Amino acid sequence: MRVPCKSLHVGFALLLAACSAMAEVPHVRVRLFSGSNMTQILLSGASMELVAYRGGESLMWERNAYQIRPGQGGVVVSVEGEADVAADSVAVSAAQPYYLVGARSTKRYLPGVVVIRPRSSAYLLAVNVLSMDDYLMGVVHAELGRLEHPQLWAAQAAVARTWFARNQRKFFDQGECYAVTDDVQSQVYHGWPVDSARRARLQAAVRETSGLVLVDEAGRGIEALFHANSGGQTMPSEWYFSPRGHLQSVPDSFSLNCPQTYWTKSLDKEAFLTQMARWLKASSSDSEFRSFVCSYQQPVRAEYLNYQGQKIRLRAIREHYKLRSTWFSIEDAGSTVVLHGRGYGHGIGLSQEGAHVMAQKGYSAAQIMAFYYPGTQLVPWEAMQP
Description:
Mean pLDDT: 93
Number of helices: 9
Order of helices and strands: EHEEEEEEEEEEHHEHEEEHHEEHEEEHHE
Distance between the termini: 49 Å
Largest sheet: 12 strands, mixed
Radius of gyration: 25 Å
Number of strands: 21
Strand content: 25-35%
């Protein structure tokens, strides 16, 4: 049975609070299934409250399952045993985390409130509204995966909180109703793990740096970039954008001999030489050029590959061939060339595998962050300078 809501529902109250708490650590509004078009959302869990908003009217249910799909100008709510109800939007909440099945029948286990509204006449938009620390539990869980250590997790939580502080207006300023997406456009967030023991460990680690962010010498929140593995040397930020004192090139022995330190990729030699010749304004049939390319060595990180006054950013080669990193040397293997590389990701800031090794060796979260972000300090969110 549906019940008229004459007072503001607690879930929607949380949504409004997310808009007003910007001076302190804010709630987070994260778009779910950001890269997908959703034509249906299924929700299941114990005693979930759903509030349907339609014009000036609000209706509330308390059930264990709901189906939401697009409707004309809004959404349609299906509740077992009752007629479908059309609404402008809905807000779902529960005392405990609940399941949401979205695009490609993928299931997420979510805390907080989920607001669902039409994205278009055919697709739905779902936004998870939750506390910062609850959001960071999901980010740390997704971003680090199998890498587990309390100090690593505490460091990643502070880094992710700092990243959010710098980027929280991006989508709002584009006219969207959410702060971040759940994919690599922002920080990966797929809800919480179902395993209660892992949730408890995540919660403890996130709380260790709760409310803290990394700032530079001027007290401003830093660009807290991170990647999977540096290969043994991080990259300075000016190779991708403008210089940052806290994003220097750091020798990183902690990232050696990790699962993602080394990689190889084979490419068709003639096609590769043709492309390199195009970039470097050379002839792919020239023997000197062919010898140079097929024996190229990069013993330390470099920004450019140079040949007779011409150069190309290694970043461009990486992006063109979808390489794991810009740090590679080349071997002639007959009809192919083999790229022998180091590291995984852009190489700027914190190396997750390196940080994991540091944690295993007894370094604290604060020491890990000081190593990868030199010249920074941890301060309360409220102490950040604009």
